[in-house]
Structure to design on (223 residues):
C-alpha cells in the first residue's frame, strides 16, 4: 500500500491496524480470488475475508498490537452488557438511525459484516462493511442506497460520542472480475472518529499458470 497522509488523524495504533488489514486482504487476493471470478455473493466474500483476518491474528496478532483473544467475527450483533441502556436485558447491537419518512431518529439493530474485536469487552478494533457491485462503470440505485447506509453506519460506529468507538472502519466495495486481464478491484473508504478519512482503489491482478489455478501476482495500487 502506498504512503498515505491522514491530516493529523494518524496514530501508531491506526497504522498497525491498517497494516494488519492490508496483510489479510493480500492473503484473500492470493487464496480466494476465484470467489470474485465466479461472482459469488457478499456473504461468501465476508466469510473468506474473516478467515484471512483470523489467520493473521492467530500467527502474528501481537505484531499489530492486537490484544490476546482478539478475533474477527461475521455479523456479530451483540454488545457487552455494561453498555446496555437501562436494565431491559436487550444486548443486541444498536445505533441511532433516522427514518426517511418522518425524519425521526430511533435506535435500530445492526449487523456489521465483519468486526475485529475482543468478545464481551469494550475492545473494538475494526468494523468492515462489504459491498459488491455488478458494473464498475455504473452503480445501480439499489447499490448506491446500500453504500450510503453503510457509510452512515461506519461513521456512527467510530464516533467517540457513540457506544462502540471502533478505532477503524473500512467500507470495501468489490468490483467485478475483469476477464480480459484476470484482475479485480476493491475500493476502500476509511473512517475514523465518526468521519470519512481517505479513499483508494486497489487492483489485484492474478497470473494463472498453464492449466493451473495458482495465483502468483497481486497488488497494483491506483490512487
Amino acid at each position: 500500500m502506498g504512503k498515505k497522509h491522514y491530516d493529523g488523524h494518524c496514530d501508531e495504533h491506526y497504522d498497525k491496524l491498517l497494516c494488519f488489514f492490508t496483510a489479510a486482504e493480500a492473503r484473500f487476493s492470493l487464496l480466494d480470488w476465484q470467489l470474485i471470478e465466479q461472482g459469488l455473493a457478499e456473504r461468501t466474500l465476508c466469510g473468506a475475508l474473516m478467515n484471512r483476518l483470523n489467520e493473521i491474528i492467530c500467527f502474528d496478532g501481537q505484531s499489530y498490537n492486537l490484544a490476546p483473544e482478539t478475533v474477527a467475527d461475521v455479523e456479530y450483533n451483540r454488545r457487552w452488557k455494561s453498555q446496555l441502556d437501562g436494565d431491559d436485558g436487550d444486548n443486541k447491537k444498536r445505533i441511532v438511525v433516522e427514518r426517511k419518512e418522518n425524519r425521526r431518529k430511533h435506535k435500530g439493530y445492526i449487523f456489521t459484516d465483519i468486526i475485529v474485536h475482543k468478545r464481551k469487552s469494550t475492545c473494538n478494533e475494526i468494523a468492515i462493511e462489504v459491498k459488491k457491485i455488478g458494473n464498475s462503470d455504473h452503480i445501480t440505485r439499489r447499490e448506491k442506497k446500500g453504500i450510503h447506509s453503510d457509510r452512515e453506519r461506519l461513521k456512527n460506529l467510530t464516533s467517540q460520542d457513540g457506544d462502540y468507538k471502533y478505532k477503524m472502519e473500512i467500507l470495501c466495495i468489490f468490483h467485478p472480475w475483469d476477464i480480459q486481464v484476470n484482475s479485480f478491484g476493491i475500493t476502500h473508504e476509511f473512517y475514523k472518529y465518526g468521519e470519512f478519512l481517505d479513499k483508494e482503489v486497489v487492483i489485484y491482478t492474478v497470473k494463472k499458470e498453464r492449466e493451473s489455478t495458482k495465483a502468483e501476482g497481486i497488488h497494483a495500487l491506483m490512487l
Notes: Helices lie at 12-31, 33-37, 42-60, 141-158. The radius of gyration is 18 Å.
